[in-house]
Amino acid sequence: MADLKVAKSVSENPCHMCMPIGGILPLKGVEGAMVLIHGSQGCSTYMRRTMAEHFNEPVDVGSSALNEKGTVYGGGENLKQALDNIRKVYDPRLIGILTTCLAETIGEDIERLAAEYLAERGLADLVIVPVSTPGYGGSQADGYYLALRRIVAALAQPTPRHDKINIIAANVSPADIRELKRLLAAMDIEYTLLPDFADTLDRPYSDHYTKMAPGGTPLDAIRAMPGAAATIEMGVTVPPALSPGQLLADEYGVALHRLPIPIGVAATDLFLRTLREITGRKVPAGVLAERGRLLDAMIDSHKHNFAGRSVIFGEPEMVYAVTRTCLENGVWPTVVAAGGAGGEAVSLFKDVLAASPEPSYFLSETDFAEIRFRSAAAGANIAIGPSDGRYLTEKEGIPLVRLGFPILDRMGGQRILSVGYTGTANLLDRITNTLLDAKHHTYRTRIYDEFYKGRRLNLAPAQAR
Amino acid sequence: MAQAVAIDGRQDFITTKGRQISRLKCDDDSIAGAVSQRACVYCGARVVLNPITDAIHLVHGPIGCASYTWDIRGSLTSGEDLYRNSFSTDLKERDIIFGGEKKLAAAIDELVAKYSPKLVFIYSTCIVGVIGDDLEAVAKAAANRHGIEVIPVQSSGFAGNKAAGYRAACDALFRLTAPATPAEAALVGKDRSINYLGDFNLAGEAWIIRDYLAQVGVDINAVFTGDSSYGELKKATRARLNIIQCAGSMVYLAGRMEEAYGIPYMHVSFLGLADTADSLRRIAAALGGGSLSERAEELIARETAKVQPVIDGYRAKLAGKKAAVYVGGGFKAISLIKQFRELGVEVVMVGTQTGRKEEYETIDSLVADGTVILDDANPSELEKFMTEQGADLLVGGVKERPLAYKLGRAFIDHNHDRKHPLSGYAGAVNFAAEVYTTLCSPVWRHAKMGGDLDG
Question: Which domain of life is it from (chain A) (predicted)?
Answer without folding.
Answer: Bacteria
